[in-house]
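Below is how a single chain appears once it has passed through the pipeline. First comes the sequence as given, then the structure the pipeline wrote out for it. We keep one example in the README because the format questions we get most often are answered faster by looking than by reading.
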Amino acid sequence: MKLKAKTGDLILAAVSVIVGIVILVLVKVQDLPMIKRSMMGPGFFPTICGIAIIFFGALLFVETFAASKKAKTDETVKAEQETKILNPRELKNLLCFLLLGVFVLMVSKYLGMLICLCLSVIVYLIFQGKEKWWKAIIVGIAMTGILYLIFVVFLKVPIPKGPLGF
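Resulting structure:
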């Protein structure tokens, strides 16, 4: 498959804008409040993320069209846009992230969100990052602790809890 950088950027920009809109629609359909009891509600984070995804998708459109205009006069920009972007290593990385994301979504109800994220980080670092198992475990546990402090303790965001209470 010969997918060039320019085409890939345009596809990514379009998908980003569509995904951002879908997130905002889902927040609205589910009637998730932005603010609840003078605190951030369950709709706050997805709304901010949806807006950011739309914004950066639109910026990518603008950047791609500006680069296309510049490519007419600059050979290096033209060569950059004509390069192939499908790389087997990147596709493997994408597949790994998708599988781990599905794992977190499907299992967090039973194990807890933070436990699932910890396990995902450990698995990713071992298989994709080629890190030693002990290093991956330390990073996974540290990341889980930081997320717990930020979201549960400081922001008081309700997250799916597992049998261990987090």
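The two ends are 44 Å apart (CA to CA).

See the next section for the split statistics.
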